[in-house]
Amino acid sequence: MGLEGIRHLGNVDDQELIRRLADVTIEYHPVSYSNNYDTVIYKTMELIAKLINKGKMNPKVIYTARYIAKSTTQRDKMAEVQAIHEWVLEHKHYANDPLNFELLTPADWLIRDIEKDGSTTIDCDEAVILEGSLLEALGYPVTLSVISTTMNPSDDYEHIYLSTEVDGQKIPLDPIMDDKPMGWELEGIYVKKKQIYN
Q: What does pTM read for this prediction?
């Protein structure tokens, strides 16, 4: 796609557009992972963790997380986590990755998109990057979980979500499941396999 094809990213000149694109991590994986599929998934989770670590130190991410937290009662940790979770749910539009690509976008770019258009178009990977970065910017640790479900005819991992912790309590957060409350996660007989990355 040329520069004209991505102008919707913002009314910016070519140099600014190129600078923004340079911040985007695109990791290409073939559709068929053969015998090293689990290794590729682990590498992808490592990249997501790196983007969250980078995002939590970004001034735009920190400002946005603190802005969201201001809507809650001071020192109410559970309310802060819920406010972050609901903000991501309210400002995302789900879409699949480009064919044969795993697209991973930094949180600050996703926030710029939200500031411009009111929402950002992302899949579960990028929703985890956004919510994880915002949570860690407020001091909440994040754990990543990737799963394969019984609805998947192959044995491939197909979904990622995150968890955080408040006063020793684990809180699963699935930032693409609009109809599920904070604390919900797919488990039991519906999960064929699960891999966790801290």
A: 0.82
